[in-house]
Amino acid sequence: DQQVKQNSPSLSVQEGRISILNCDYTNSMFDYFLWYKKYPAEGPTFLISISSIKDKNEDGRFTVFLNKSAKHLSLHIVPSQPGDSAVYFCAASWGASYDKVIFGPGTSLSVIP
Amino acid sequence: DAGVTQSPTHLIKTRGQQVTLRCSPKSGHDTVSWYQQALGQGPQFIFQYYEEEERQRGNFPDRFSGHQFPNYSSELNVNALLLGDSALYLCASSKRTSLDWEKLFFGSGTQLSVL
After folding, report:
1. Is the pLDDT of residue B103 over 90?
2. Chain B residues with CB-CB distance to A34 below 8 A
3. Which CATH number fits domain A4-112: 2.60.40.10, 3.10.129.10, 3.40.50.1380, 3.30.70.2190?
C-alpha cells in the first residue's frame, strides 16, 4: 500500500517557466512533509519541508503548498533552471513518534534550455 | 565536515550469498536509517537504528538485519540473496533530538547486483 503517491513519473518544462510537482498521501497521521532532489549517482538531498500546521513554505525559488483536507501537496519551482533537472521525491513522516520517513516514487523533472 | 559515507560503492554477488554494507553517519548525527531503491522506484524504508537498537522497521523479511555501533556507524546485512535484492541501498543519518530530525542526510549508496 503506497502511502505517498506521485502520479507523474516525468515532467518537462522550459527554462524560466514554473515547474509544479504534485504529491498525494493517504495516511492522515502524517504531520511533516519533505521534498528531496536526487541527481544520478548521488543520494537524495533535502530541498524543502512543511509542517502540517502550515499551508505554505517558501525558500528562494522553491515553494511547497499543503492542502490537508485533500491530502495533497505540491512543489513549485520558479523560475525553473536547467540545473533543476533531477528526480524529485515527496516524503512524509509522523514526526511526533520519530516514525520512519516514507518516500513517494519520484518525478523526473527535465528543464529544457 | 564529512557527510554520510557508504562502502562499498558497488557490489556483485550471486544468489544465496550474504552481503554486508557499511555506513558512517554525518558528524553529530546519532540515527541511521537504511533504504532500498529499486530501479525507477522511490527509496523504500528498511529499518532505523538509534542507540544501537532497531527502532523502526519497514516491510522487509528477516533476511535483512542490521547493527549500529557505539560510534553511530551502521551495517546492513542481507542473507540468502535473491535476484530481487538487486538495488541501490541508501543510508541516511539524522539527529533524533533535533527539531528537524526528518531532514535526512543521505550517502551516495551501494549498488548491489545479484546474479
Report:
1. no
2. 102-103
3. 2.60.40.10
